[in-house]
Amino acid sequence: MKKIVLLIFIGIGMLSCSKNDDKQERNPFLTDPAVNLNLNLNLPEYNSLKFPGNYIITSQGIKGIVVYCISENQYLAFDLTDPNHVPSSCSRMELTGVIASCPCTNDDNEYFITSGQHTTEPGSKYPMQQYNAQLSGNTVIVSN
Question: I need a surface site. Which of 5, 33, 83, 95 has the fewest CB within 10 A?
Fold first, then answer.
């Protein structure tokens, strides 16, 4: 009888655990487009990514992707669609320095491209959709 009770408690414990406990809630506005970019830093159009604080914009993703150089070997990549509403004709964000802002009427959403977080409401707004970005040799690989 003790073994049955023990098995029931173990079963309940395993069912109450979730693989997604540490993950943020899925953004209902955005999809996950297939992204696979290889940015060769030896090419002139990507050369600026060798220097911290610089970024480039690509046409992949939902509304484009900004790839930001943090250091000589560390990069970030975020989608340029505003994550807090359904993608539309005006939801491609514009960059001013390290701030991405949505140009839609009556929309004051702004995000840091250094973290993807909303500038004024980081806890209550969805962050920018992030992609994996890593340096391999002289190539920055951006994928999901």
Answer: 5
